[in-house]
Specification:
alpha+beta
C-alpha cells in the first residue's frame, strides 16, 4: 500500500470521489505532498470559476466567492510555509500540466448539476490536505521535540483551521438541488473518510512520544508550565498540541453546524448517527491529559494567588462605589453557646459537603466570606455558593477540626486544622484561623480565614508532579 495513500480501498465514498485515482495522481515520491496540494488548488479554482458562471438567483454567490478567495489565499500561504518547513521541492510546470490533464479526465461526469461538482470537490480537497496532515504528523513522530517539531504541529493545526473555513461553503448549496444528489449518493458519506478519522490516532502517537521523552529526562509536564523559561521548547510543544486539538475539535463542530444547516439536526446521517449527536465528538479533546494538566495547574494557582483573588475588580468597584465590602462592625451581646453552634455548623457543613447548609449560615444578601486578607470577599448567597463549589472542585473530602474557639459578644475566633483529600487523591493537612461576626439573628455577616495558601499550593504541586520543588524565577514585566 502506498504510504501516502489511504487504506480507503473501494468504499462507496471513495468510488464516488474517484479517490483511489486521485491518490495515483499524487504518487508516493518526494513530490507527493505537493502534487496533492496542487490537486486541491486546481479543484478550488475550477469551483470558483463555476461559481462565477452560476446563474441561479437563489444562490448566495457573494458569500461563496468570499470563501473561495479566503481559502485560495490560505492555500497559497500555507503551501509556501510547508515547502519551507518540510524542504519539499517545487513542482515543474510540466508536472502541473500533467496533474491538470488527469483531473480533467476524472471529472467528466456531472449528473446532478453544480452541487454534484462542488460536493465532490470539497471532499477531495479535504482528502488532499489531510493527506499532507498525515505526512507531517508521521514526520513529527520520527523527531525529538524541537522548536521545528512545534512549528510542524502548529502548521498542521493551521491546515485544519483552513479546512473548517472551506467546508462551510457546503452550507450555501441549494437544498433542493443537493438533496436530489444526496439521495442518489446513499451510503457515500464523508463520515467514511479514514484520513480524517485517523488524525487523532496519529496526533496521539506524537503526543505520547513527547510525554515519554519528558519522562525519560525527568521533566514532569507540570514543571514545563511552572518553569517555562527553562523549558521553552517543551512549552511550545504543549502550545502546539493545544492548537492541534482545538483546530480539530473546531473542524468537527463546524462540520456538525454545516450538516445541521443542510439536513436538520434531527436527521440521521448515512451511517445511522443522528446529526445532533455529532457535537459530542467535537467536545472530546484529542489529548485529555492536557485538559487534566491545565486543570491541575489551575487548582495549584488558585491557592498560590488566592491572597490577590479579585483585587483588580474590587478596586474598581470601590472606586466607582458600586459595591461595599466593609467588614461588619456592629457589636451585640449574643448567647455564646448559640454562636459556638453556628461556627460548629459552619465546619460541619464543610465536612458533609452541604453547600446549601453552609450558605444558609450567612445573611443571604450581606453575608461575606473573605478567604484571604485583602482579597475580594464573596458576598451574598449566590457568590458564597460559587465559592464552595470551587472549594469542592479542589477537595473531594475535608475533615475540619476546631482546635480552639473563643467568643466575645458577636465575634467568634477559632484556630482550625483541615485534613483533606484533593481531587487527585493527594492527602494534605493545613491549619489556619478564622474570625466570624454575627448579627442579632445569629447569621454570619463576615468571615475571614487566614492560612498559608501558598504552602498548600506547593504541597499540591509536589504531590501532583512528583518532584522536589524550587520556586520559579519571577520575571518582572516592566523595569
Amino acid at each position: 500500500m502506498n504510504a501516502f495513500m489511504s487504506s480507503q480501498q473501494r468504499t462507496p465514498y471513495a468510488l464516488y470521489l474517484h479517490l483511489n485515482e486521485y491518490e495515483n495522481i499524487w504518487g508516493n515520491d518526494s513530490t507527493a505532498p505537493l502534487r496533492a496540494l496542487y490537486c486541491a488548488e486546481v479543484l478550488l479554482q475550477q469551483n470558483a470559476r463555476m461559481n462565477e458562471s452560476d446563474r441561479r438567483p437563489y444562490i448566495d454567490k457573494e458569500k461563496k466567492r468570499t470563501i473561495f478567495e479566503e481559502t485560495m489565499r490560505a492555500f497559497v500561504h500555507d503551501t509556501k510555509c510547508l515547502r519551507k518547513l518540510m524542504k519539499w521541492p517545487a513542482l515543474s510546470e510540466t508536472e502541473k500540466q500533467d496533474i491538470e490533464l488527469k483531473i480533467a479526465e476524472l471529472r467528466t461526469e456531472n449528473r446532478y448539476g453544480q452541487e454534484d461538482t462542488l460536493f465532490a470537490s470539497v471532499h477531495l480537497i479535504a482528502e488532499s490536505w489531510f493527506a499532507v496532515v498525515h505526512c507531517m504528523l508521521k514526520k513529527c513522530n520520527d523527531e525529538l521535540p524541537t522548536k521545528q517539531t512545534a512549528d510542524f504541529l502548529k502548521q498542521v493545526a493551521r491546515i485544519i483551521e483552513v479546512q473548517q473555513l472551506f467546508v462551510r461553503i457546503l452550507e450555501y448549496m441549494s437544498h433542493r438541488d443537493y438533496h436530489r444528489l444526496r439521495v442518489n449518493l446513499r451510503d457515500a458519506s464523508g463520515a467514511q473518510s479514514r484520513r480524517i478519522h485517523e488524525v487523532p490516532a496519529l496526533a496521539r502517537k506524537v503526543f505520547e512520544g513527547f510525554c515519554a521523552h519528558l519522562k525519560k529526562i525527568g521533566v514532569p509536564p507540570l514543571m514545563v508550565l511552572e518553569n517555562q523559561q527553562d523549558h521553552v521548547v517543551f512549552y511550545l510543544m504543549l502550545s502546539a498540541f493545544q492548537d492541534l486539538t482545538r483546530s480539530f475539535q473546531s473542524f468537527l463542530f463546524n462540520h456538525y453546524l454545516m450538516v445541521g444547516k443542510i439536513l436538520g439536526a434531527s436527521s440521521l446521517g448515512s451511517l445511522g448517527s443522528q446529526v445532533n449527536g455529532l457535537v459530542g465528538h467535537a467536545a472530546n479533546s484529542i489529548f485529555p491529559e492536557l485538559d487534566q494538566l491545565f486543570f491541575d495547574y489551575t487548582q495549584i494557582t488558585n491557592f498560590r494567588y488566592g491572597h490577590m483573588s479579585g483585587k483588580v475588580v474590587m478596586e474598581k468597584e470601590l472606586q466607582w462605589q458600586v459595591a461595599d465590602y466593609s467588614p461588619y462592625t456592629e457589636s451585640h451581646d449574643l448567647d455564646q453557646e448559640r454562636v459556638k453552634e453556628v461556627v460548629a455548623q459552619y465546619f460541619r457543613c464543610i465536612e458533609t459537603q452541604d453547600i446549601r447548609g453552609w450558605v444558609q449560615q450567612f445573611h443571604p444578601e450581606e453575608g461575606q466570606m473573605c478567604d484571604a486578607p485583602g482579597s475580594r470577599p464573596f458576598k451574598g448567597s449566590q457568590k458564597l455558593s460559587v465559592f464552595m463549589k470551587n472549594f469542592f472542585k479542589a477537595f473531594q473530602s475535608v475533615a475540619p477540626q476546631i482546635l480552639d474557639l473563643s467568643v466575645d459578644k458577636n465575634t467568634a475566633s477559632c484556630r482550625w486544622k483541615m485534613n483533606a483529600r484533593t481531587y487527585n487523591d493527594t492527602l494534605l493537612s493545613f491549619s489556619g484561623t478564622e474570625t466570624f461576626r454575627l448579627n442579632t439573628g445569629y447569621q454570619i455577616m463576615y468571615a475571614l480565614a487566614e492560612y498559608d495558601a501558598e504552602a498548600v499550593a506547593t504541597d499540591l504541586l509536589i504531590a501532583t508532579a512528583g518532584i522536589e520543588y524550587q520556586k520559579p524565577v519571577q520575571f518582572e514585566m516592566y523595569h
